[in-house]
Amino acid sequence: MLSGCRRALPAALRLAVRGWAGGGGRRRVSTSWSPVGAAFDAKQQRSRLTGQSTGLFGVPELSSPEGFQEAQEKALQETEQLVQKACTTPPGPQIVMIFDQLSDALCRVADLADFVKIAHPDFAFREAAEETCRNIGTMVEKLNTNIELCQSLKQLLADKEVMDSLDPETRQVAELFMFDFEISGIHLDEEKRKRAVDLNVKILDLCNQFLIGAHLPNKIDKQILPEHIRYNFAVEGNYIQITGLHADCSDDLVREAAYKIFLYPNAEQLRCLEELLTSRNHLAQLVGYNTFAHRALQGTMARTPEKVMQFLETLSDRLFQRTLKDFEMMEGMKMKLNPQNSKLMPWDHPYYSGVLRAERYNIEPSLYCPFFSLGACMEGLNFLFNQLLGISLYAEQTEKGELWCEDVRKLAVVHENEGLLGYIYCDFYQRADKPHQDCHFTIRGGRLRKDGEYQLPVVVLMLSLPHSTKNSPTLLTPGMMENLFHEMGHAMHSMLGRTRYQHVTGTRCPTDFAEVPSILMEYFASDYRVVNQFARHFQTGQSLPKSMVSRLCESKKICAAADMQLQVFYAVLDQLYHGEHPLKRSTTEILKETQEKFYGLPYVPKTAWQLRFSHLVGYGAKYYSYLMSRAIASMVWKQCFVQNPFDRAMGERYRREMLAHGGGKEPMLMVQVIYRNAAPPEGT
C-alpha cells in the first residue's frame, strides 16, 4: 500500500550525507554502514548518544512537536517567494522548474507530517503533524485556484515554439501541473473557486476523521459473549474490546462474534462516510465532472469509470465458476470440521481457505517461520537487488533524535557505480497505537537541484512484525515475507525514479500503475530460485527444501479465484460509492446488494463493513488499481523474469524503461516498451 501524494519533498530535510564526497557526483562508501541482515537479526544498534541532537529524519526543527510550526512557516515563506517568481518569469523551462520548487517547498514537511501523524508514539507529535498537514493542504488548494499563478503556466503551454523545445519529461510535468489546476476549478468564478477550496479542506478533515474511526475498536458487555471464548479478546472492566476480525482464529464462534461486533455500525462513522461521499461528489460537479469517479480517474491508465466497470465485470465473469468451486471446497471443509453449523459465511473465507491450503500442501506457517528470519529475508532482498540492479542495502547508524522509535532501522541504498541513491527507514515492528497496516510513505522525493546535485529520496516502510524473543530473532510467516517484498518494491520504485522533477518522482505516478513494481516483487518472493538464496533455518542453517517452496507456491492457487472475487467486490463497491449521487440507497444497502452480486457470500444483518474500508480515503474510486496492476505485473514477470529472476540485462531494462521514469512518462508507453523489447519466453 502507498501513502503520499504527487507533491514535493524536503530540500530542507537536510538529511546529513555524512562521509559522502566523491568526484563526479558519486557518493562514496560510509564507515557508518554495516551488513543489512545482521542489523535486523541483532538487537537494535543505538543511535549516537554523543554530539548535538538532531530532529526527526535529520530535520533540526523537528526535535520537538513545536518544530512543526517553525518548519511550516519556513515552507510558507518560501512558497510566497516562489509564487512571485513564477508570476514574473517569461515562458520557458524555468517556469516548470519553479513550479516544482514550489511543490517541493510546500511538501518539505507535508509528506513527512502525513507519516508522523499516524505513526509517532508521542501524541503531541501526532497532533502537531496533523495540524501541519491541514494547514499546508489548505495552502495547496488555494494555490491550485490562483489565477495569476495558473496564467504563467498557461502562457508556457500556449507557446508552441517553446513547448516543442522542451524535453518529454518537462512537457509531461508542465501538463500535469495544469491538470492539477483544472481539476481544482481554476476555470470557475471567484466565489466558486473559494467553494472548491473550502470543499477540499472539508474533505481532508472528513478523511482524517474516517480513518480514525475505521480503526477504533468496538466494545460489548462481556456477559453477552459465551464465557469460553472471552479469553480471545481484550477485557476492560465489564467490557470486551474487539479490535479486529480475528480472521485466522480456528474457533468459528470467535470469528463470528468478532465479525458481528467489530462491523456493527457506528452512527457517527456512518455520518462521516456519507458526508465524505457527498462532499466529494459536490466538488467533482462543481469543477465540471459528472461524478467523483470521473474526476479521480482522469490521468490514470483506465481513464473513465465506465472502463473500470467494464474491466471489473469482465474479470468477475471469468472468475465466477472457479469462485463457486472455491466456496464449495470451503463449505465442505467447514462441514467436516463443524457439521453442526456448516453454512459458509463471510467470516469463514480467510480461515477455511487457509485450512484447505495447509491440508492439501502441508504448509502450516509454523513449519516455514524458522527459515524466514527477518535478517535472512533482508539479505535475500539485498542479494536480489544486487543481481538485478547492482544495488546493495546497508544499515546506517542514526543520530540522536533522528528516529521516532528506537527499533527503527535506517538503510542506505547504494549502487555499485552511482553510489548512494537514497534512504529507507524501516519501521517494521508492532507497538501500541501503531496502525496494523503495511505501507510505504514518501518522506522526500528525488529531484535535480539548481546546484546540479540530486536531492536523494527518503521513504519509510511500515510493517507490523513481531519482535524478536530471547530464543529467536523475528520470524516471518510466508505471508509476512511476501508483504515485505511487496513494500520493498515500492521503496525501490522511489529509490530508482531518477526524474528531474520531484512532482513525478518514484511512486508519484498514476495509482493504477504505482502498484505494479510492488506486486511484481511478490512473483520474486514466490520463486524457488529466489527463495533458495536466503531461506535458512535460523538455528541449523539448513536451506528450505525445494519441495516446501514448491508446495507453498502451489498452495497459493487454492481458493485464488475466491480471493480475487473478494477484491472485485471491494473495487465495485468503491466505484458505486463514487458514482452518481444522490445514492439511490443507503451505503449499507448498496453494500448488501453488491456483496451478493459480486462476491457470493451472504450479507450479515446489522453489519457495515464499509465503515472499516479505510482504502476509501487514499484510494477513493481507485481501489481497482490493485487488480489492474496485478495484470500488468504478471505480464512483466512473464516477459522479463520468468526465465531467469536474476537476469541483469532484464533488470537494467526494467529500471531504465519503467522505474526510472516515475510519473514522468505515460504508463502505457512504458508497459508497451517493456513488452516490445523483452525477449520472448522459450518455445514461443
Number of strands: 12
In whole angstroms, the N-to-C terminal distance is 35 Å
Approximate strand percentage: 5-15%
Discrete helix count: 26
Major beta sheet, strand line-up: 1-9-12-8-7-6-2
**Estimated radius of gyration:** 25 Å
Biggest sheet descriptor:
7 strands, mixed
Judged by helices, strands and strand pairing, the structural class is alpha+beta
* Overall pLDDT score: 91
Family: Belongs to the peptidase M3 family.
Catalytic activity: Release of an N-terminal octapeptide as second stage of processing of some proteins imported into the mitochondrion
Domain Peptidase M3A/M3B catalytic: 246-672
Main location: mitochondrion
Descriptive account of the structure:
- The structure is a single chain.
- The protein is built from 26 helices and twelve strands.
- By secondary structure, it is an alpha+beta fold.
- The strands form three sheets. The protein has a seven-stranded mixed beta sheet, sandwiched between helices.
- α3 (93-119) packs antiparallel against α4 and α8 runs antiparallel to α10.
- The longest helix is centred in the middle third of the chain and has 33 residues, at 305-337.
- The radius of gyration is 25 Å and the shape is globular.
- The relative contact order is 0.13.
Blueprint (SSEs and pairs):
Layout: E1 2-3, E2 33-35, H1 36-41, H2 67-88, H3 93-119, H4 123-143, H5 147-158, H6 160-165, H7 168-183, H8 190-215, E3 218-221, E4 234-236, E5 239-242, H9 252-262, H10 267-286, H11 292-296, H12 305-337, H13 349-361, H14 365-368, H15 374-389, E6 391-396, E7 409-415, E8 419-429, E9 439-444, E10 447-448, E11 454-455, E12 458-465, H16 478-496, H17 511-514, H18 516-525, H19 528-531, H20 546-555, H21 560-577, H22 587-598, H23 615-618, H24 625-641, H25 648-657, H26 667-677
Parallel strand pairs: 1-9, 8-12
Antiparallel strand pairs: 2-6, 3-5, 4-5, 6-7, 7-8, 9-12, 10-11
Helix pairs in contact: 2-3, 2-4, 2-5, 3-4, 4-8, 5-7, 8-10, 12-13, 12-21, 13-20, 16-18, 18-24, 21-22
GO cellular component, one term: mitochondrial matrix
Catalytic activity: Release of an N-terminal octapeptide as second stage of processing of some proteins imported into the mitochondrion
Family: Belongs to the peptidase M3 family.
